């Protein structure tokens, strides 16, 4: 996959291309392992909702809609389905009973654990075919990438990328 022997930090655009290739390979792996890596019985969109609720227990529907960049009716339908499946519960906020707070149920937490366990097993198998120093470099790099992605985005200056 690597086309040059220069360090990645000296060629940011090369690193971005490589990360893009990894994402494409992961999409292929997820598709190939659909039965193993599936989020069934819920959709990937519903799973994304559960991840957000897990990170922000007690989030309300309007904040969830902003996180997902979707309209209120879509959030309501997603939450209706997740509640019907027993994965989330809605609790009225004590100060304003019209506002519903969302949290995962034990069943929802267990479902996310199963999804993560299956995905981790698949990734562990792939990484076992890598040399230990490459595994360490990958873990270090991904940790830094996660930190960078979680920071607020800065406006792009198109003059710098030219």
| Mean pLDDT value | 82
CATH class annotation of the domain at 44-110:
Mainly Alpha
- Unreliable stretches: 1-6
Number of helices: 8
Cα-based radius of gyration, to the nearest Å: 20 Å
Query: How does CATH name the architecture of the domain at 44-110?
Result: Orthogonal Bundle
Please state the structural category: mainly alpha
Q: What is the spatial order of strands in the main beta sheet?
A: 1-3-2
Terminal-residue CA separation: 25 Å
Task: List the quaternary state of the chains.
Answer: single chain
Fraction in helix: 55-70%
| Helix/strand order | HHHEHHEEHHH
**What is the CATH topology assignment of the domain at 44-110?**
Arc Repressor Mutant, subunit A
Apparent shape: globular
Strand content: 5-15%
Largest sheet at a glance? Answer: 3 strands, antiparallel
> How many strand segments?
3
CATH-assigned homologous superfamily of the domain at 44-110: Winged helix-like DNA-binding domain superfamily/Winged helix DNA-binding domain
Characterize the structure shown.
The two termini are 25 Å apart. Strands 1-3-2 form a 3-stranded antiparallel β-sheet. 64% of the residues lie in helices and 7% in strands. 9% of the residues are buried. Strand 2 and strand 3 form a beta hairpin. The radius of gyration is 20 Å and the shape is globular. It contains 8 helices and 3 strands. Residues 1-6 have low confidence and may be disordered. It has 162 residues and is mainly α. The chain has helices spanning 12-32, 34-37, 44-55, 61-68, 72-84, 106-127, 132-150, 158-161; strands at 59-60, 88-92, 100-104. It has a domain at 44-110: Winged helix-like DNA-binding domain superfamily/Winged helix DNA-binding domain (Arc Repressor Mutant, subunit A).
